[in-house]
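Team,

Forwarding the record for the chain on the shared tracking sheet. I've put the sequence and predicted structure together so nobody has to dig through attachments.
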Amino acid sequence: MNNHAAVEVIDLSHYWQVIRRQLKKIILFSAIITVIAVLVALAITPVYRATATILIEAEEAKVLSIEEVYGLGSASDEYYQTQFEILKSRELAKRTVLELGLIDNPEFNPAHPANKKSFSIKEMIFGEAEPLTEEEILAETVDTFWEAVSISPVRKTQLVKVSVESESAEMARAAANAMAQQFIESQLDAKVEVTQQAAGWLSDRLGGLKAKLEASERKLQQYREDNDLVDVEGVDTLVAKEIDQITEALVEARARRLELQGTYEQLQSLGALNYDNLSSLPSIISNPVVVNLRDAETQAELKVSELKKRYGPLHPKMIAAESDLEAVRESVLTQMKRIATSIESNYLVAQSKENSLEKALRNSKSDVRNLNRTEFTLSEYQREVRTNRQLYEAFFNRVSETSATGDLQTANARVVDPAIKPVVPVKPNKKLIVLLALVVSGMFGVALAFLLDILDSTIKNLDDVERKLDVPMLGLLPLVGKKQDAGDAEQMVRAFVGEGMDGFRESVRTLRTGLTLASMEHPASVILVTSSVPSEGKTTTSTNIAEAFGQMEKTLLIDCDMRRPSVAKKLGLAPNVPGLSNAVAYPDMLDECIQSRPELGIDVVSAGPIPPNPLELLGSKNFRDILDTLRGRYQRIIIDSAPMQAVSDALYLSTLVDGVVYVVKADATKDKLAQDGLSKLDNNNARVLGVVLNQVNIDREAKYADSYAGYYDVYGYSSKSVQG
């Protein structure tokens, strides 16, 4: 996880370095694009926008009152949305074009003679096209004007903004106001058209309604005559009163009968009508006459009782009193019987009256039912006549109203804020164009820098070595410009022991230290120096490394580039001096082939005469024996070999040495070449000690790579150190 995070940080740092490295180019590119954008913005014809505000009424003017005819609900959302769509319609734009005569305006008429191109490749290839008809010209003009119109409803209000854009401020104002006015007039025209259609439809319907009314009236009159009806309402009232009276009398009769029924049923249950039985009926006992007679009977009984106490039964007074008592009792019984007979008679009369009233009520109800049927049929005819008359009168009134108000025009919209002549153009927004050009060009410049970095496959700095080659970095050798040293290649191979290049000398010392540390565990007394392709500076590197080691230990430099040797020439050796090819061919000449260079502090074995078969020479047993002999004489042997991609000499030599130093030229060597060379060495089990990055532009890398700037300065790699 930590390694993954480290890779991400390195990548971000690399991207930042890419931006910093190309910053001047990015700024220059952005500045050029911005200047072009400014020129384009200044060249664009300004466009003005004028806006008129329309108020759409919440409710339409109902002068004609014919909403039922076309069912328009002005309070609904659909109504307002419909008005907005009408404002956006092509037909309304067409009315405005015709009103303003925009066909004669080159801005809106693409087919106007003023817009004709003096030269057209299309016409040159296909020939001149047929001229447009008037309808096609009008259609194109309407489409152009339509695109210049924008409709914007104001939220939560009944206001709509109508905007028109034009290259002429006055035309924008006139077109916006004309668009609003044409909308209002189109509403009026539509209303008048609907009114006229409604009036015609009403007139047609009126004739049919009149005939229908007359037919219904004739049917009503015929029904009255067939049923001898004069005033059904009066008859209905009379019958109703009669039923009420019979019902009231029936209720009373039924109550009377129920009242007598109990007494009558008790009387029937007595059997014989004697004094004792009749005395048990409360209705008889409570009769006033019976009450008086019973009082008289009581008095007579009291008198008889008193006389018994004084006289005997045969006493005249006693006999008279008893006779009076009997007479009173007979009177009471007679009166009771009379009352019983009256009760029975009254009950029978009440029962008969009740039955008679019930029969009369049934007859009255039957009459009412018959009357209701007649009245129901009559009501149907009357209702039909009334409905037809109301409908006829309503249509007659509507026709009259429509005819009277047909010329009155009212609209459901009005202009609340007419458009005024704009002063400032809305297009182009020069500030926005310049700002966008600046931002977009800057972003494009950064993207272009990343693209160039992706396409640039060369090794440029320390990061590239670690990121692309995945091989330890032994050190770097700075690029020595003409201002620091005007010497040639011969002076560069002597740079370590020469004067005036302290920075380069320090970089070689650092490289020597790196090699020493790399061979601490496994000593590397014989070191092979190679590169991917020629001219990467491997000879300069190998000679300076040898000179650096020569100050500390006995060192030998061998030129094993048997195809294009350069050590002898660069070190100023005689052209015919014997070299490695002589020593391999004649091992006894080895000492003659070793050239001592005290001023450099090293011994040198040049390549000697170029053999026809270099690889066979290097692969011979004599070469291996010579190398073993030299190991015993020298503490450090530096071998300069041929490039890896050119021939396979270096690949073979890597099996005989203790370590390989791979030289890469900064800003020149392709990463694929270096990777391929290192891969070959790895597959050959060669011990690669590390990479030397040669000819590095120290000033530039120190400027763009903050993490290495101090490192360069401390060790004297910068140009200031070189000069100092």
